[in-house]
Amino acid sequence: MTTTFPPSSLNGAQVAFQAYAQELARIAKTPDTITKQQILRLLLVRDAIESKLQADESIIRQADALAYLSDLDNKLQALAPALIEDNRLADCRRSRQPDEAAWWWWLEPYSPETKRHKLDQFDWLWNCLSASCLVISASFLTITAQAFSVVGGFDLIQTLSTLSQATGLVVITGGALTQRGRRIVKNTLKKFNIPPYFHSEVTLIISVLMLLLSYGVYNSLPQFSQYYYHKGLQAQHAGNLYIAVEYYKEAIAFNPEATDPHNHLAEVYQNLEKFEEAQAEYQDGLLKGDLLALNGMGILSLAAAENPDSEGFGELSGLLDAEVLFRIGLNQVDDGNARLKATLHRNLGITLMKRGDAEDISVEAQKKLIKEAFQHFQMSINLEKPVVSETSYPGQGLAYCYIAALDERNGLAQNATKNWQMCQQQAYPASLEQYEDILRLGSGAIGLQLNTKHILESNLK
Question: Does pTM surpass 0.70?
């Protein structure tokens, strides 16, 4: 039975009691949307009632008031679970700092523990697993974002991939690791009619999906690398060398272990006369045992020999370095890779020929170098014959030009004429250095008749 508070009793407290009853009724109607302002207003009114009770000395009036107040306090205790949710009451208590005797500020003991669903006993495990998935997802996202931003910008593919991961990660992390986020996730799941005892499990499932998405994008980085590598090849073949540099850098960022982007980036740097940068890129492939990088470093050493006064070649000493590199390459190249083997023979022949022309050595030693150079040119031609097809490639047929020059030196005019004809028909210089070489070795007419469409393209194979 509810006690009715006499309007005339307890001087000055009637308004406070009415306000207390009204606040309790208002909160009871909307327990799911209680604000801190409502809680503070309710408890401050309760403080005012307590002050007036302490000030009145009439035992009869206090007895009537306490009887009525007891009913109101019972309603307050019944609202305890809603008031203490999300630490709202604790936040209000920190602002007020009430005395512990004011029990209405300390309602936690009056909130009975809700009977937990049997599935809720594993919520701690699901929450821990969700947090672990999110941490790992963040790691994958960080690596991906770093790869995407290596040249300072994002294209459409990169932007969509990164934003999809980042947005999902922010939403799920907020829901799993912050109070406000948990409340938003809980309300969202309620809208989908998902029972509360499944909330942790659903959050875990979403976190696992986020992890799979992040890992999928991370695992696709080699495919991104191939995409930008081929874009770089297209730009290089079109002569857009600065654009090719950016694409090759992207390819390397997505897959640092791939050697082809390093080699082609080095080749572009060499064409741009950035020799130290080219050497650094070839060095990466050499450390991984890549023979194309070894061949490229040899070509760079030949260029150093042609430019002895240049300071851009670092520690490269020229012809001797080139000879060593090409010989190592021939010792290691697979017989099945006829095109690369032919290239190494040709490049070693060029190196030996230049050594015989440049070094102050005896006539006998010079003849020995030239003879060996001729043999390597011939082996290059023999290896190229089976692989030459309707589609030409950079560096094809250059050995004919050098053999023709050697034939002229040895007085073999007929052979020289035949080989110069083959040079005109099958030689495709891959670089300005190679084209200049042939112009020096032969007549101007021969140089004018050479097909130069592969200049600035790949000279690695």
Answer: no
